[in-house]
Design a protein that fits this description.
Layout: H1 3-13, H2 19-29, H3 38-46, H4 49-53, E1 60-61, E2 69-71, E3 80-86, E4 92-99, H5 110-118, E5 122-123, E6 128-129, H6 134-140, E7 149-158, E8 164-174, E9 179-181, H7 182-189, H8 197-200, H9 205-226, E10 237-241, E11 244-249, H10 255-278, E12 282-286, H11 293-302, H12 313-326, H13 331-342, E13 346-350, H14 377-390, H15 399-432, E14 439-448, E15 451-456, E16 461-467, E17 477-486, E18 491-499
Parallel strand pairs: 1-8, 2-9, 16-18
Antiparallel strand pairs: 3-4, 4-7, 5-6, 7-8, 10-11, 12-13, 14-15, 14-17, 15-16, 17-18
Helix pairs in contact: 2-15, 9-10, 10-14, 11-13
Length: 502
């Protein structure tokens, strides 16, 4: 049934709104295959662990190390584990174990072709569309506790000044000792909550996590000194209760989230160093020097700040730090403005000897995506490239293949973002459906030729200001009345009923 018919029928008879059906429709609209076809299911079900692991001789046994993971409470597709130990000269040696997905998903297999088309797992908040069937991503290729797993381990040393020295990359057998949760670990580390049971009950794990935090702080401090951008865009999360939306929340970023982010950036840099040393074509993750730097300069001027006429990551980073401290409530909206002006991230093939593109937002020159092969297809490509280096075999991809894959996977990432944004708005619209006529405090988030948009503070829901929008400016606090909430078309309309100072 077409979306318009679904909407009109539901409104007329007040029927149950099926968000999962809307999610499947959105996936198809943006070119994804939301269901695994029978050939993929048969192939996955036929895979056996013993057959896959046979014949491997270069695998280090690291199961005795105190590996742990930190992820969302409901995540089962775990891609990486972390372990640290002190080294000489106040160094901290880090190991990141990345799930060996390539073991179970050979290049050009049915499962591989399906994953290559979709390019990424899509997390709609209502239902998840995984890159691989659950038997792999929630089982054989997931680094969940309770079973030995194969991984590609990345080593690097965090130096006292916060820079890192790339180390070895190799195959290993690992065992996750504790599945930890971002919110629980973050609250504990920041003194806002008790020590999580997963940390408390594993001997030595508390000291291990605190050492990881020390390494993370060093890495982050160094990157900020180099001009890394501390952006904080709001990413609302839908909390479901059965088939209904219980609430829409914005998870708070904390030390646990920063820890994983810092560790993965260094691990990705180490993967690039491995491929660069081998002299093979790779895919890099790129955010090039902003084409709209003049717009960033103009944005800063609105806050009575002066940025250099030429792109300067360090100056922009310092400006953002000041604004976050001065006005944390509006900072997510400023962050979103800067993100749009920076331009979208993309994947580009890089040949040996070619000047690297760099990642402007992270203030790094050599970067890729390699630490989430259960969730992103590009990470699986990088894993195969690294394994060809370990095996001293030719690259499994030609340069032309990598160029084509880069363009396609860039497109898939952008389209997956559209699906996720659409479903966030659809869920928010459903949550607000019974509050037509209510008023909310809001902040203006956009004012373009396409209209003026505002985000309510509680709950966090963005919609279009269709009445009383004249003269509104981005960042201005306003009061809005809810006029319309349409989950099928992901539309929320407001009327501006009060204005505050910008």
């Amino acid at each position: 049934m077409p979306e318009t018919n679904l909407f009109s029928t539901a409104m007329k008879h007040h029927r149950f709104v099926d968000l999962k059906a809307i999610a499947y429709s959105a996936m198809e609209k943006y070119g994804f295959w939301p269901r695994f076809p029978e050939p993929v299911i048969r192939e996955v079900n036929a895979s056996t662990e013993g057959k896959v692991l046979a014949g491997q001789s270069d695998v280090r046994d690291l199961r005795a190390l105190l590996w742990s993971s930190i992820d969302n409470s409901d995540s089962l597709d775990l891609d990486q584990l972390e372990y640290c130990e002190r080294g000489p000269g106040d160094e901290i040696h880090v190991r990141v174990a990345v799930a060996d997905v390539d073991l179970y998903v050979p290049k050009a297999s049915q499962t591989d072709r399906h994953a290559a088309h979709n390019g990424t797992s899509v997390y709609t908040g209502v239902t998840t569309f995984p890159l691989f069937p659950d038997r792999f991503s929630h089982g054989l290729t997931s680094l969940l506790p309770g079973g030995d797993r194969r991984a590609i381990v990345v080593e690097y040393a965090v130096l006292p000044d916060g820079s890192f020295r790339p180390g070895d990359v190799y195959r290993a057998q690992v065992l996750n000792k504790a599945k930890l949760v971002y919110e629980e670990v973050g609250d504990w580390l920041e003194g806002l909550g008790p020590i999580p049971p997963g940390v408390r009950d594993v001997p030595g794990l508390e000291a291990q996590i605190r050492l990881q935090v020390e390494a993370s702080r060093r890495l982050k401090h160094y990157r900020m000194e180099q001009g890394a951008l501390e952006l904080d865009t709001l990413e609302p999360r839908t909390v479901m209760e059965g088939d209904t939306v219980r609430e829409v929340v914005v998870p708070r970023k904390n030390l646990a989230g920063h820890l994983i982010e810092d560790f993965m950036i260094a691990a990705n840099g180490t993967m690039v160093a491995c491929l660069e040393k081998a002299g093979i074509t790779m895919i890099q993750r790129v955010v090039q020097v902003p084409k709209h730097w003049d717009g960033i300069v103009e944005t800063a001027a609105m806050y009575h700040e002066v940025l250099p006429a030429e792109p300067d990551a360090k100056a922009l980073s310092e400006f953002l730090v000041r604004r976050k401290k001065a006005d944390p409530e509006r900072f997510p909206d400023l962050s979103l403005t800067i993100v749009k002006l920076l331009g979208r991230g993309e994947y580009l093939a890089l040949e040996p000897g070619q000047e690297p593109y760099g990642h402007f937002g992270l203030a790094v020159t050599h970067y890729t995506h390699s630490t989430a092969p259960n969730r992103r297809y590009v990470d699986l490509i990088i894993q195969r490239l690294v394994k060809s280096v370990l095996d001293r075999k030719p690259s499994p991809y030609t340069t032309e293949e990598l160029v084509q894959r880069s363009a396609w996977l860039t497109d898939r990432e952008h389209e997956s973002n559209k699906v996720e944004r659409f479903m966030q708005k659809a869920a928010a619209a459903l949550f607000l459906q019974n509050r037509i006529g209510d008023t909310f405090d809001a902040i203006v988030t956009g004012a373009t030729e396409h209209g003026t948009f505002a985000r309510t503070l509680h709950p966090p829901a963005e919609g279009k200001v269709v009445q009383g929008s004249h003269g509104l400016a981005v960042g201005q606090k306003i009061t809005v009345r809810l006029l319309k909430a349409d989950p099928y078309n992901a539309l929320i309309d407001f009327a501006c009923t009060g204005r505050g100072k910008r």
